[in-house]
Amino acid sequence: MAIDYLPVINTHFTLFGGHQETVPADWQWPAEEHPAFELMYILKGRQRTITETGELVLQAGEFTVIPIETRHTNYALDHRPMTYFCMHFNLDDPALRYLLIREYAGRVITPADAIYPALRTQAEHLMAMIGPDYNLADQLDLQVSVIDVIMTLVKDLKVAGKFKPHAADVDQFMLCHQLASDLKAQLDYQIYHAAEPQQTSVAKIVAARNISQSYALKLFQKYYHESPQQYLIALKLATAKELLCQPKARINAVSAKLAYASPSHFTREFKKHFGQTPRAYMRQEKLE
Protein backbone atom coordinates (compact mmCIF):
# COMPACT_ATOMS: atom_id res chain seq x y z
CA MET A 1 0.00 0.00 0.00
CA ALA A 2 1.46 3.37 -1.07
CA ILE A 3 1.49 6.06 1.60
CA ASP A 4 2.20 9.72 0.94
CA TYR A 5 3.60 11.87 3.74
CA LEU A 6 3.85 15.53 4.54
CA PRO A 7 7.45 16.71 4.92
CA VAL A 8 9.21 17.37 8.21
CA ILE A 9 9.68 21.15 8.48
CA ASN A 10 11.92 22.85 11.00
CA THR A 11 12.08 26.45 9.82
CA HIS A 12 11.90 29.09 12.55
CA PHE A 13 11.03 32.74 12.33
CA THR A 14 11.22 35.55 14.87
CA LEU A 15 9.17 38.71 15.24
CA PHE A 16 11.35 41.46 16.72
CA GLY A 17 8.37 43.73 17.25
CA GLY A 18 6.84 46.57 15.31
CA HIS A 19 5.22 49.93 15.85
CA GLN A 20 3.19 52.70 14.27
CA GLU A 21 4.47 56.24 14.74
CA THR A 22 3.86 59.81 13.60
CA VAL A 23 7.06 61.81 13.37
CA PRO A 24 7.64 65.58 12.89
CA ALA A 25 8.46 67.25 9.59
CA ASP A 26 12.20 67.45 10.29
CA TRP A 27 12.50 63.82 11.45
CA GLN A 28 15.44 61.70 10.46
CA TRP A 29 16.75 58.50 11.98
CA PRO A 30 20.51 57.91 12.23
CA ALA A 31 22.09 55.21 10.08
CA GLU A 32 21.44 51.74 11.47
CA GLU A 33 21.24 48.10 10.47
CA HIS A 34 19.25 45.27 11.99
CA PRO A 35 19.77 41.50 12.33
CA ALA A 36 16.33 41.19 10.73
CA PHE A 37 14.23 42.22 7.75
CA GLU A 38 12.33 45.48 8.20
CA LEU A 39 8.96 45.93 6.53
CA MET A 40 8.22 49.66 6.12
CA TYR A 41 4.70 50.93 5.30
CA ILE A 42 4.13 54.67 4.84
CA LEU A 43 0.63 55.76 5.94
CA LYS A 44 0.87 59.56 5.57
CA GLY A 45 3.52 61.80 4.05
CA ARG A 46 6.64 60.64 2.22
CA GLN A 47 9.86 58.99 3.33
CA ARG A 48 13.32 58.98 1.82
CA THR A 49 15.39 55.90 2.62
CA ILE A 50 19.11 55.90 1.87
CA THR A 51 20.78 52.48 1.96
CA GLU A 52 24.28 51.32 1.19
CA THR A 53 23.12 50.32 -2.30
CA GLY A 54 20.84 53.19 -3.29
CA GLU A 55 18.08 55.63 -2.43
CA LEU A 56 14.29 55.19 -2.35
CA VAL A 57 11.39 57.60 -1.96
CA LEU A 58 8.24 56.01 -0.53
CA GLN A 59 4.86 57.66 -1.07
CA ALA A 60 1.91 57.24 1.27
CA GLY A 61 0.49 53.74 0.86
CA GLU A 62 3.75 52.18 -0.34
CA PHE A 63 5.93 49.43 1.18
CA THR A 64 9.56 48.45 1.10
CA VAL A 65 11.49 45.58 2.67
CA ILE A 66 14.92 46.52 4.02
CA PRO A 67 17.09 43.38 4.09
CA ILE A 68 19.04 41.97 7.02
CA GLU A 69 22.13 43.98 8.02
CA THR A 70 21.53 46.62 5.36
CA ARG A 71 22.63 50.02 6.60
CA HIS A 72 19.93 52.63 6.08
CA THR A 73 18.85 56.11 7.10
CA ASN A 74 15.24 57.34 6.96
CA TYR A 75 14.00 60.92 6.51
CA ALA A 76 10.56 62.55 6.45
CA LEU A 77 9.99 64.67 3.32
CA ASP A 78 7.74 67.58 2.34
CA HIS A 79 8.02 69.71 5.52
CA ARG A 80 5.11 67.87 7.15
CA PRO A 81 4.64 65.10 9.70
CA MET A 82 4.84 61.52 8.48
CA THR A 83 3.12 58.40 9.80
CA TYR A 84 4.59 54.97 9.23
CA PHE A 85 4.36 51.38 10.40
CA CYS A 86 7.39 49.11 10.59
CA MET A 87 7.88 45.49 11.58
CA HIS A 88 11.11 43.53 12.09
CA PHE A 89 11.21 39.81 11.39
CA ASN A 90 13.74 37.12 10.61
CA LEU A 91 13.75 33.49 9.55
CA ASP A 92 16.49 30.90 9.70
CA ASP A 93 16.07 29.17 6.34
CA PRO A 94 19.08 30.29 4.22
CA ALA A 95 17.29 29.85 0.90
CA LEU A 96 14.31 31.98 1.95
CA ARG A 97 16.60 34.66 3.38
CA TYR A 98 18.57 34.66 0.14
CA LEU A 99 15.43 35.00 -1.99
CA LEU A 100 13.97 37.84 0.10
CA ILE A 101 17.25 39.76 0.03
CA ARG A 102 17.87 39.16 -3.67
CA GLU A 103 14.39 40.08 -4.87
CA TYR A 104 13.22 42.81 -2.48
CA ALA A 105 16.34 44.90 -1.79
CA GLY A 106 15.81 48.37 -3.26
CA ARG A 107 12.23 47.61 -4.33
CA VAL A 108 9.17 49.75 -3.61
CA ILE A 109 5.88 47.83 -3.50
CA THR A 110 3.08 50.02 -4.87
CA PRO A 111 -0.67 49.57 -5.52
CA ALA A 112 0.27 48.47 -9.04
CA ASP A 113 1.94 45.30 -7.70
CA ALA A 114 -0.10 42.10 -7.59
CA ILE A 115 0.83 41.41 -3.95
CA TYR A 116 -0.17 44.88 -2.76
CA PRO A 117 -3.81 44.20 -1.69
CA ALA A 118 -2.84 41.19 0.44
CA LEU A 119 0.19 42.95 1.94
CA ARG A 120 -1.85 46.02 2.83
CA THR A 121 -4.60 43.93 4.45
CA GLN A 122 -2.02 42.02 6.47
CA ALA A 123 -0.22 45.20 7.58
CA GLU A 124 -3.51 46.77 8.67
CA HIS A 125 -4.37 43.61 10.61
CA LEU A 126 -1.01 43.80 12.41
CA MET A 127 -1.50 47.50 13.21
CA ALA A 128 -4.96 46.76 14.62
CA MET A 129 -3.35 44.32 17.08
CA ILE A 130 -0.98 46.91 18.58
CA GLY A 131 -1.84 47.31 22.26
CA PRO A 132 -0.49 47.46 25.81
CA ASP A 133 -0.86 43.74 26.60
CA TYR A 134 -0.80 40.49 24.67
CA ASN A 135 -2.23 37.20 25.88
CA LEU A 136 -1.38 33.79 24.41
CA ALA A 137 -4.14 34.00 21.80
CA ASP A 138 -2.85 37.43 20.72
CA GLN A 139 0.70 36.10 20.42
CA LEU A 140 -0.46 33.17 18.27
CA ASP A 141 -2.47 35.56 16.10
CA LEU A 142 0.63 37.74 15.67
CA GLN A 143 2.73 34.73 14.68
CA VAL A 144 0.19 33.64 12.07
CA SER A 145 -0.06 37.21 10.74
CA VAL A 146 3.72 37.53 10.35
CA ILE A 147 3.82 34.17 8.55
CA ASP A 148 1.07 35.49 6.25
CA VAL A 149 3.28 38.50 5.36
CA ILE A 150 6.26 36.24 4.65
CA MET A 151 4.10 33.92 2.55
CA THR A 152 2.76 36.85 0.53
CA LEU A 153 6.31 37.93 -0.28
CA VAL A 154 7.42 34.38 -1.07
CA LYS A 155 4.38 33.45 -3.18
CA ASP A 156 5.02 36.50 -5.35
CA LEU A 157 8.46 35.08 -6.14
CA LYS A 158 6.96 31.67 -6.86
CA VAL A 159 4.47 33.14 -9.33
CA ALA A 160 7.29 35.05 -11.02
CA GLY A 161 9.34 31.85 -11.37
CA LYS A 162 12.07 33.09 -9.02
CA PHE A 163 11.55 30.67 -6.17
CA LYS A 164 14.07 27.84 -6.66
CA PRO A 165 17.60 28.92 -5.78
CA HIS A 166 20.50 26.53 -6.31
CA ALA A 167 22.28 25.50 -3.11
CA ALA A 168 25.56 26.86 -4.51
CA ASP A 169 23.92 30.25 -5.05
CA VAL A 170 22.76 30.38 -1.44
CA ASP A 171 26.20 29.46 -0.09
CA GLN A 172 27.96 31.93 -2.35
CA PHE A 173 25.53 34.70 -1.51
CA MET A 174 25.93 34.16 2.22
CA LEU A 175 29.72 34.34 1.86
CA CYS A 176 29.37 37.56 -0.16
CA HIS A 177 27.02 38.91 2.50
CA GLN A 178 29.59 38.10 5.20
CA LEU A 179 32.29 39.95 3.26
CA ALA A 180 30.00 42.97 2.95
CA SER A 181 29.34 42.87 6.71
CA ASP A 182 33.10 42.71 7.36
CA LEU A 183 33.61 45.79 5.18
CA LYS A 184 30.91 47.68 7.08
CA ALA A 185 32.37 46.73 10.46
CA GLN A 186 35.87 47.83 9.44
CA LEU A 187 34.56 51.09 7.99
CA ASP A 188 32.63 51.79 11.21
CA TYR A 189 35.78 51.28 13.23
CA GLN A 190 37.71 53.59 10.92
CA ILE A 191 35.13 56.38 11.16
CA TYR A 192 33.94 56.20 14.74
CA HIS A 193 36.70 54.57 16.80
CA ALA A 194 40.15 54.84 15.19
CA ALA A 195 42.45 57.42 16.78
CA GLU A 196 43.71 58.46 13.33
CA PRO A 197 41.99 58.19 9.92
CA GLN A 198 42.95 54.95 8.20
CA GLN A 199 42.02 53.30 4.94
CA THR A 200 39.82 50.21 5.00
CA SER A 201 41.71 47.39 3.28
CA VAL A 202 39.53 45.24 1.04
CA ALA A 203 42.47 42.89 0.46
CA LYS A 204 42.93 42.17 4.18
CA ILE A 205 39.23 41.55 4.73
CA VAL A 206 39.04 39.16 1.78
CA ALA A 207 42.20 37.32 2.91
CA ALA A 208 40.73 36.88 6.40
CA ARG A 209 37.93 34.80 4.81
CA ASN A 210 40.56 32.55 3.17
CA ILE A 211 39.45 33.25 -0.39
CA SER A 212 41.21 34.86 -3.33
CA GLN A 213 40.74 38.44 -4.48
CA SER A 214 39.49 37.18 -7.85
CA TYR A 215 36.84 34.98 -6.21
CA ALA A 216 35.68 37.88 -4.01
CA LEU A 217 35.41 40.03 -7.14
CA LYS A 218 33.35 37.31 -8.85
CA LEU A 219 30.97 37.09 -5.87
CA PHE A 220 30.43 40.85 -5.63
CA GLN A 221 29.92 41.21 -9.37
CA LYS A 222 27.35 38.40 -9.27
CA TYR A 223 25.33 39.54 -6.26
CA TYR A 224 25.98 43.28 -5.90
CA HIS A 225 26.82 44.06 -9.55
CA GLU A 226 29.97 45.92 -8.54
CA SER A 227 33.45 45.21 -7.19
CA PRO A 228 34.24 45.05 -3.45
CA GLN A 229 36.08 48.37 -3.80
CA GLN A 230 33.07 50.01 -5.50
CA TYR A 231 30.83 48.62 -2.75
CA LEU A 232 33.14 50.13 -0.12
CA ILE A 233 33.10 53.52 -1.88
CA ALA A 234 29.29 53.46 -1.95
CA LEU A 235 29.28 52.68 1.79
CA LYS A 236 31.66 55.57 2.51
CA LEU A 237 29.62 58.03 0.47
CA ALA A 238 26.32 56.94 2.02
CA THR A 239 27.95 57.58 5.40
CA ALA A 240 29.22 60.93 4.10
CA LYS A 241 25.62 62.03 3.45
CA GLU A 242 24.72 61.28 7.04
CA LEU A 243 27.77 63.11 8.41
CA LEU A 244 27.15 66.15 6.21
CA CYS A 245 23.63 66.47 7.64
CA GLN A 246 24.90 66.78 11.19
CA PRO A 247 24.80 70.23 12.87
CA LYS A 248 27.96 72.27 12.22
CA ALA A 249 29.25 69.68 9.73
CA ARG A 250 32.38 70.69 7.84
CA ILE A 251 33.41 69.18 4.51
CA ASN A 252 37.09 69.06 5.48
CA ALA A 253 36.30 67.19 8.70
CA VAL A 254 34.04 64.68 6.92
CA SER A 255 36.70 64.11 4.26
CA ALA A 256 39.33 63.43 6.93
CA LYS A 257 37.05 61.11 8.91
CA LEU A 258 36.49 59.05 5.76
CA ALA A 259 40.27 58.90 5.17
CA TYR A 260 40.27 60.68 1.82
CA ALA A 261 43.65 62.01 0.68
CA SER A 262 42.22 65.52 0.38
CA PRO A 263 38.87 67.39 0.48
CA SER A 264 39.10 67.89 -3.29
CA HIS A 265 39.37 64.11 -3.82
CA PHE A 266 36.33 63.60 -1.58
CA THR A 267 34.38 66.29 -3.46
CA ARG A 268 35.17 64.74 -6.85
CA GLU A 269 34.09 61.27 -5.73
CA PHE A 270 30.93 62.59 -4.06
CA LYS A 271 29.93 64.52 -7.19
CA LYS A 272 30.69 61.55 -9.44
CA HIS A 273 28.48 59.31 -7.29
CA PHE A 274 25.57 61.69 -6.54
CA GLY A 275 25.75 64.29 -9.30
CA GLN A 276 26.30 67.22 -6.91
CA THR A 277 29.05 68.51 -4.65
CA PRO A 278 29.00 68.00 -0.88
CA ARG A 279 28.42 71.74 -0.43
CA ALA A 280 25.43 71.70 -2.79
CA TYR A 281 24.05 68.68 -0.93
CA MET A 282 24.38 70.48 2.41
CA ARG A 283 22.56 73.55 1.04
CA GLN A 284 19.81 71.31 -0.36
CA GLU A 285 19.30 69.53 2.95
CA LYS A 286 19.02 72.79 4.86
CA LEU A 287 16.34 74.02 2.46
CA GLU A 288 14.26 70.84 2.43
UniProtKB/TrEMBL annotation:
Ranges in a coiled coil: none
Entry-linked PROSITE patterns: HTH_ARAC_FAMILY_1, HTH_ARAC_FAMILY_2
Keywords: Activator, Cytoplasm, DNA-binding, Transcription, Transcription regulation
Record Gene3D superfamilies: Homeodomain-like (1.10.10.60), Jelly Rolls (2.60.120.10)
Keyword DNA-binding (UniProt): yes
Superkingdom of the organism of origin: Bacteria
Keyword Secreted: no
Molecular functions per Gene Ontology: DNA-binding transcription factor activity; sequence-specific DNA binding
Ranges for domain HTH araC/xylS-type: 184-284
InterPro entries according to UniProt: AraC-bd, AraC_XylS_family_regulators, Homeodomain-like_sf, HTH-like, HTH_AraC, HTH_AraC-typ_CS, RmlC-like_jellyroll, Tscrpt_reg_AraC-type_HTH
Record Pfam families: AraC_binding, HTH_18
Name this protein carries in UniProt: AraC family transcriptional regulator
Organism this protein belongs to: Levilactobacillus parabrevis ATCC 53295
Record lineage: Bacteria, Bacillati, Bacillota, Bacilli, Lactobacillales
